[in-house]
Design brief:
The complex is a heterodimer of chains A (211) and B (369). With 211 residues, chain A is α/β, with parallel strands linked by helices. Chain A has helices spanning 2-20, 31-43, 65-73, 88-102, 120-127, 133-149, 157-168, 198-210, and strands spanning 24-28, 50-54, 77-83, 107-111. Chain A has one domain. The chains are: A alpha/beta (211), B alpha/beta (369). At the A-B interface, strand 2 and helix 3 of A face strand 14, strand 15 and helix 10 of B.
Chain lengths: 211, 369
């Protein structure tokens, strides 16, 4: 009987070990996206089994088809978190088409909130800490000035994120203004418990159950 | 790149071969790189790919040599042992009771699927026709043999008794195999390769000398000359009267020499190279690969090579991205061998754009756990 239960425990351990080999592979467009998702996964305490893969842009996802096929065959969970850009439905349809044409499987979440058109910058502009509102007021004024001039590209969403971090980061940390070095936890610039992140939280939490 | 060479493969499948239940390479091109974790079967795949389209008996002998090579010594296949404790058992997938392996392929010039089926048969299983086909072979005592190899190549059927006595020299100079193993560097076979190919063409000799300059600074001549009682290859240098034997140079330099020779020898054919970058200094890697690629293109030699090195893959990316080689990007493929959840091995094909983009991203094309 003791042997039997030991055997059962051993088999259960083996099964758990096998299950733990399953991983979640998340493809993102850029380095900033990678840093945000990595930090947000950490914030949600989901670190184990996640790998965030930078692709280099929305057009590069098709070059990852063999890698996604490999992950599918290995029964890892695959997710693509990209920008909606100008049209949420169109971007979603493009990615669904890519899945169907190539017989690959992945879940999709589109920034900013899997509902609206936009980008990761729209999400970030919704979750900065309001104590830094004066910085954004200045940046808004700068944007208005450019709009009034009429010769320049507006809005300047990427510029606002860069300008904000450039203004608030201490000199010894100014390197963290760069996309691949940004930090979304361990500081008070970003509020990762903001309700705007709820759709992303729900999207990622489903893997916690599966892992 | 469109090819019309009958030895070049455009598709390949091996079934029940060594660790593979089934492995397929689709859309093969001229320069093919195979990557993957240790023990995933990269060298096994090269062995499978080294079959001779028109000489299956020779291929079965080659498989015996592959076993010898892995043991780093010559295995003397005694007649009885060779068929009873048969080396060929190594080549059937252990997980299968079916002692048959098969190779299927398509060539560039045709859409026909060719197949070779190798079957280990017990003598008691042979039909009358098959028994008849082995009568009269007096080099072997058939009464001592229990197992035989049968092969079936497209419509051709045959029972094969492999005469191993012909294939015991190392390397088997009378039985050239289009594969370079990672431990294969210097050898007397290089003299033969050189005299059979490069020494007969002045322009080719000049081209090889120019390429060799990467490792042999100021080289201006290659000659076969006598050293003690044997013939050897010698290298000559500008402003030096004395010739230097090739064997005294480093492994990387000699390996480069071997690869150039064998690529040229396999003009319009195909060649497998295991761990192509092994022994090459990282600062020389790009130059080395650039010259290997250009020699392959100039000789229309189809290459299958393996590597573990990210530096090697990055160097290949730079070479095929360079303005002079951009037009050759369609001649490049990378196959990543990976284990599926069920434990079988599968090859994932990356064309050049996918390969380059994956190297630029965080995804690891080389697999591994």
């Amino acid at each position: 009987m003791i042997l039997n239960s030991s055997l059962q425990l051993w088999i259960r351990t083996l099964i758990l070990e096998e299950e733990n080999k399953m991983e979640v592979k998340i493809f993102v467009e850029g380095y900033c996206d990678k840093r945000l998702i990595e930090d947000y996964i950490s914030h949600l305490k989901l670190q184990k089994g996640f790998e965030v893969i930078y692709t280099g842009g929305k057009d590069k996802i098709k070059t990852q088809i063999p890698t996604i096929k490999k992950f599918n065959d290995q029964e890892h969970k695959v997710a693509v978190i990209f920008d909606s850009d100008k049209n949420f439905k169109n971007r979603l349809a493009d990615l669904e088409k890519l899945k169907n044409e190539n017989e690959i499987i992945f879940d999709i979440f589109l920034f900013p909130n899997h509902k609206d058109a936009g980008t990761i910058e729209d999400l970030l502009l919704n979750i900065y800490n309001p104590i830094y509102q004066p910085v954004f007021d200045c940046l808004d004024a700068y944007e208005k000035c450019l709009t009034k001039n009429g010769q320049y590209k507006v809005p300047i969403k990427k510029g606002k994120i860069y300008g904000f971090l450039d203004a608030v980061l201490p000199i010894e940390e100014e390197d963290k203004v760069k996309d691949n070095k940004r930090e979304f936890i361990g500081n008070d610039y970003w509020l990762l418990d903001n309700a705007y992140l709820k759709p992303l939280e729900e999207f990622l939490l489903k893997y916690k159950v599966e892992l | 790149m469109e090819k019309s060479n009958e030895k070049h493969l455009s598709y390949f499948k091996a079934e029940n071969f060594k660790n593979f239940n089934k492995i397929e390479l689709e859309d093969i091109s001229l320069f093919n790189v195979i990557v993957g974790d240790n023990n995933v079967g990269k060298t096994n795949l090269l062995e499978a790919l080294s079959f001779e389209n028109n000489d299956i008996t020779k291929y079965l002998c080659d498989l015996g040599f592959f076993v010898s090579n892995r043991h780093r010594k010559i295995i003397h296949f005694e007649e009885k042992d060779s068929f009873n404790n048969n080396y060929i058992f190594n080549y059937f997938n252990n997980s299968s009771d079916d002692k048959t392996f098969s190779l299927s392929y398509k060539n560039f010039d045709s859409d026909n699927l060719n197949s070779i089926k190798i079957q280990l048969k017990n003598k008691s299983e042979l039909n009358k026709e098959e028994v008849g086909s082995i009568q009269g072979l007096d080099f072997i005592d058939i009464s001592k043999i229990n197992n035989l190899l049968a092969f079936n190549s497209n419509d051709k059927k045959a029972i094969v008794l492999v005469d191993f006595s012909k294939h015991l020299s190392y390397p088997p100079s009378d039985n050239y195999m289009p594969i370079i193993f990672s431990n294969q560097i210097h050898g007397t076979d290089l003299i033969e390769f050189y005299s059979d190919t490069v020494s007969k063409s002045k322009s080719q000799k000049l081209e090889v000398i120019e390429n060799l300059n990467l490792f042999f600074n100021n080289i201006d001549n290659i000659e076969i000359s006598q050293s003690f009682e044997n013939y050897e290859l010698f290298i000559g240098f500008k402003n030096h009267d004395k010739l230097m034997p090739l064997s005294m140079f480093g492994d990387g330099a000699i390996k480069f020499f071997r690869i150039l020779m064998e690529v040229i020898m396999n003009k319009n054919g195909r060649l497998s190279i295991d761990e192509i970058d092994n022994g090459i200094h990282y600062k020389k890697l790009e130059g080395f690969l650039k010259k290997v690629v250009s020699t392959c293109v100039n000789n229309d030699t189809q290459i299958f090579c393996t590597t573990h090195s990210l530096e090697c893959l990055k160097a290949l990316k730079l070479i095929f991205e360079s303005s002079e080689n951009k037009k050759l990007q369609n001649s490049f493929r990378c196959y990543s061998l990976n284990k599926t959840k069920e434990g079988s091995i599968k090859a994932y094909k990356y064309d050049f754009e996918q390969f380059a983009s994956t190297l630029d991203s965080d995804a690891d094309i080389r697999g591994g756990e």
